């Protein structure tokens, strides 16, 4: 049973960095959609494919969610982290080994602003929890300990399917890249099943391929980038070919610590929450790459992001600060339709 593609209006709901639950309520059975909660956010799949294909994609996303959660003990990552803390080696599946290898390269190429080995500090700041409770900041001695230990994925050894660490403080947390990996996998699986028009949206991190239809004719997808300061969209764009639009936002997960809001994104060099950019959006053919890069550039902040982007070879970037001012890369600027002239004037093309 094949059905019509989703319309453009449906897809304006697929906003990077936003959750459009009103859209979910209107979902009708005739369109191929799947809605679930994974990674703490809604996941939406809009595609023209058979029921079985979409169910298989969702099952795979659920598996990633279960196995690679940094704070749930039941999965593969939880078991590996427990072993690393105890100074023991533990087995890692091939996908997990690939994740480690990719994250090691991304750490190196981002000058360590993306670092999937800082799980201890992320947990210490209270972000390894489903509920964000107010509380105290970690003690300075503890922060010094994380900084001095300087965890890096380069300290991992992979031998015969076993992973060992030279650093017992190193705890893996793939929160900054796993959604991207999941999105890429979902699109790969859809393509392998012959589906070429789709959007996969994990809590506002999304990738699109192919087209949608409007009045029976193929039209480009339209993606909105969320305004981090106000409800609504700061800009819209049409993805090119298969392309991911991933936003890292300090507003996405935060806690009140000593009366102040602190974000879940940490600077691995200081073991403190990143403060400068409020959101960074990266476009890239690979959602995994865009995800890790967006996190790295948010941490790098206004002074350093361009050097990091250059080294990562990321060319399509939009970064917004706490006052609503932003910087947009020269390659991305002509592709963006800003919400209004005032918004555009607050952006500097770099
Ligand atoms: P994202 O929303 O993609 O920026 O990912 C943020 C999540 O990644 C956090 O909730 C942490 O689990 C983890 N994380 C925080 N800071 C970093 C960092 N500098 N490098 C890698 N992962 C991080
Ligand atoms: Mg990320």
Description of the structure:
This protein has 350 residues and is of the alpha+beta class. It is 33% helix and 26% strand. The chain contains ten helices and 22 strands. The chain has helices at residues 8-11, 21-26, 51-67, 76-85, 94-109, 119-124, 140-149, 178-192, 287-312, 341-345; strands at residues 15-16, 33-38, 41-47, 90-91, 156-159, 162-165, 198-202, 205-209, 212-214, 217-219, 223-226, 233-237, 243-249, 254-257, 260-263, 266-267, 272-273, 277-284, 316-321, 326-328, 337-338, 347-349. The chain has a nine-stranded mixed β-sheet. A four-stranded mixed β-sheet has the order 1-11-12-21. A three-stranded antiparallel β-sheet has the order 4-6-5. Helix 3 (51-67) runs antiparallel to helix 8 (178-192) and helix 8 packs across helix 9. Mean pLDDT is 88; it is low at 1-31. It binds adenosine monophosphate and magnesium ion. Magnesium ion (MG) binds at residues 176-177, 248, 291-292, 294-295.
What does the largest sheet look like? Answer: 9 strands, mixed
Structural class: alpha+beta
- Rounded to an integer, what's the Rg over CA atoms? 20 Å
Give the number of DSSP strands: 22
Strand content: 25-35%
Q: What ligands are attached or bound here?
A: adenosine monophosphate, magnesium ion
* Strands ordered across the widest β-sheet: 2-3-7-8-13-18-19-20-22
Average pLDDT confidence is: 88
Segments where pLDDT lies below 50 for 5+ residues?
1-31
**Percentage of residues assigned to helices:** 25-40%
Task: Name the shape in a single word.
Answer: globular
User: How many helices in DSSP terms?
Assistant: 10
Instruction: Report how far the terminal alpha carbons are from each other.
Output: 48 Å
């Amino acid at each position: 049973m094949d059905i019509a593609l989703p319309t453009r209006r449906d897809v304006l709901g697929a906003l990077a960095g936003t959750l459009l639950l009103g859209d979910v309520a209107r979902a009708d059975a005739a369109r191929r959609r799947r809605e679930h909660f994974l990674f703490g956010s809604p996941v939406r799949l809009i595609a023209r494919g058979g029921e079985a294909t979409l169910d298989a994609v969702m099952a795979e996303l659920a598996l990633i969610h279960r196995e690679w959660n940094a704070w749930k003990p039941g999965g593969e990552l939880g078991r590996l982290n427990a072993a690393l803390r105890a100074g023991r080696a533990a087995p890692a599946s091939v996908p997990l080994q690939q994740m480690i290898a990719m994250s090691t390269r991304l750490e190196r190429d981002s000058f360590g602003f993306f670092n999937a080995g800082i799980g201890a500090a992320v947990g210490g700041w209270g972000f390894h929890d489903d509920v964000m409770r107010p509380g105290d900041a970690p003690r300075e001695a503890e922060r010094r300990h994380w900084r001095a230990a300087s965890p890096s994925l380069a300290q991992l050894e992979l031998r015969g399917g076993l992973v060992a660490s030279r650093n017992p403080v190193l705890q893996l947390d793939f929160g900054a890249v796993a959604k991207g990996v999941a999105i890429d996998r979902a699109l790969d699986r859809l393509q392998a099943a012959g589906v070429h028009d789709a959007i996969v949206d994990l809590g506002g991190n999304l990738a699109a391929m192919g087209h949608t239809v409007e009045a029976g004719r193929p039209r480009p997808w339209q993606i909105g980038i969320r305004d981090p300061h106000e409800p609504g969209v700061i800009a819209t764009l049409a993805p090119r070919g298969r392309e991911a639009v991933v936003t890292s936002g300090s507003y996405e997960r935060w806690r009140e610590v000593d009366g102040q809001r602190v974000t879940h994104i940490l600077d691995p060099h200081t073991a403190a929450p990143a403060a400068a950019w409020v959101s960074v959006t990266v476009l890239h053919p690979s959602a995994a790459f865009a995800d890790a890069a967006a996190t790295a550039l948010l941490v790098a902040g206004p002074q350093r992001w361009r050097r990091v982007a250059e080294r990562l070879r990321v060319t399509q970037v939009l970064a917004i600060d706490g006052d609503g001012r932003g910087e947009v890369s020269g390659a991305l600027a002509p592709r963006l339709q800003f919400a209004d002239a005032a918004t555009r004037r607050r952006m500097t093309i770099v």
